[in-house]
Specification:
The chain has one helix at residues 2-8, and strands at residues 12-14, 17-18, 35-37, 48-53, 59-63, 66-70, 75-78, 93-98, 104-108, 113-117, 122-126, 141-146, 152-156, 159-164, 169-173, 188-193, 199-203, 206-211, 216-220, 235-240, 246-250, 255-259, 264-268, 283-288, 294-298, 303-307, 312-316. The relative contact order is 0.11. A 4-stranded antiparallel β-sheet has the order 4-5-6-7, with no helix packed on it. It is mostly beta strands and 335 residues long. The longest helix is centred in the N-terminal third of the chain and has 7 residues, at 2-8. Strand 17 and strand 18 form a beta hairpin.
């Protein structure tokens, strides 16, 4: 299929969104060229929150005005239709995830979790029902992950959810004041499953590691009296480096790297006196590509590439006179 083949070999940059193709982005920002896709090309809205590629080869964009599917030439937009329960449940898309079976899952801001049905091009939605204890705990869904056993974990504004694939029921994990092993905070922003199968959870009050055996959580909290603790409790994005270290993007304190063996954190912050420092302490996304290169999307300073050996950052920022560069200073998503 020519259009799908075309998708696999290009880098697409959307106004507030980045798609990284590692084959062409080795370590030299000067070699980066990009193609801009905007509303003029059929994108439903220029502010795109998330991106993924499915098993067929389509690129999917989640925006604040619907779900967009791109075949390399044209967009097809899926919007919520009032009184049509088979349409997508909400137009504001926060996260997209393709599981190991090839199913596409969609996290929405106000109307729960959706699963795309490829045969009919319709959606099955999972919404919170206060009368059903096994429904999803909140309709505000931030992100979706899958562990090595094929379990789906859903981050919501009302705790962490586990989806039972057999009956599509949800188990809930929430914070309990009287239980130290409970979730750190009910506002769960992100989840990440590392190469060893560990489930990491980023919340508004620290990072957690799930203990599958005891069904409890190990906490990583900021301690102002401990320089080796995590630098902030507001965790936005989690990834993993090639050597197995856990990479944490925070809302207000830059990039942290957790050494699994020593259980200590190394901190990287922005410094106005160091042009090779992190571009901003406010991070939207941390992404490790298949070649092991770590990319950081910042709120106001574009794209950063991290060099592990030197501890330095290379920056790609918006340049009005460069038609082949990125076209905004804020990077929301990476793939």
């Amino acid at each position: 299929m020519k259009s799908i083949t075309r998708i696999k070999y290009f880098n697409w940059l959307i106004t507030l969104l980045l798609l990284i193709h590692a084959d062409q982005l080795f370590s030299q920002f000067n070699n980066i060229t990009s193609k801009h896709l905007t509303i003029d090309n059929g994108l439903s809205q220029s502010s795109a929150n998330c991106i993924t590629q499915d098993s067929i080869g389509f690129i999917w964009f989640g925006t604040q005005d619907g779900l967009n599917r791109y075949d390399g030439y044209n967009f097809k937009v899926f919007n919520h239709i009032i009184d049509d329960p088979t349409s997508i449940s909400d137009n504001n898309i926060l996260n997209l995830f393709v599981d190991r079976t090839g199913a596409l899952w969609i996290a929405t801001e106000n109307s729960g979790l959706n699963k795309f049905n490829y045969d009919t091009e319709t959606f099955t939605s999972f919404k919170h029902n206060p009368n059903n204890s096994k429904s999803i705990s909140s309709d505000h869904v931030y992100s979706i992950s899958e562990d090595q056993s094929g379990n789906l974990w859903i981050a919501t504004s009302a705790g962490l959810n586990h989806l039972n694939r057999k009956d599509y029921s949800f188990s809930h994990f929430k914070h309990k004041d009287n239980y130290a092993g409970s979730l750190s905070c009910d506002t769960v922003i992100c989840t990440f499953v590392d190469k060893n199968g560990n489930l990491w959870i980023g919340t508004e009050n620290g990072m957690d590691l799930y203990d599958y055996k005891n069904k409890s959580f190990i906490h990583y909290k900021h301690d102002p009296n401990n320089l080796n603790s995590i630098s902030s409790n507001k965790i936005i994005s989690i990834s993993q480096s090639k050597d197995g270290s856990v990479l944490i993007g925070t809302e207000d304190a830059g990039l942290d790297i957790l050494n699994i063996k020593t259980n200590k954190f190394t901190h990287y912050r922005h410094s106005s006196e160091n042009p090779m420092s992190l571009g901003s302490d406010s991070i939207n996304v941390v992404y490790t590509d298949k070649d092991g290169i770590v990319w950081i999307g910042c709120v106001s300073s574009g794209l950063n590439e991290f060099n592990f050996q030197s501890g330095k950052f290379l920056h790609e920022v918006n340049e009005n006179n460069n038609p082949n560069g990125i076209n905004d200073t804020q990077i929301l998503s990476a793939f």
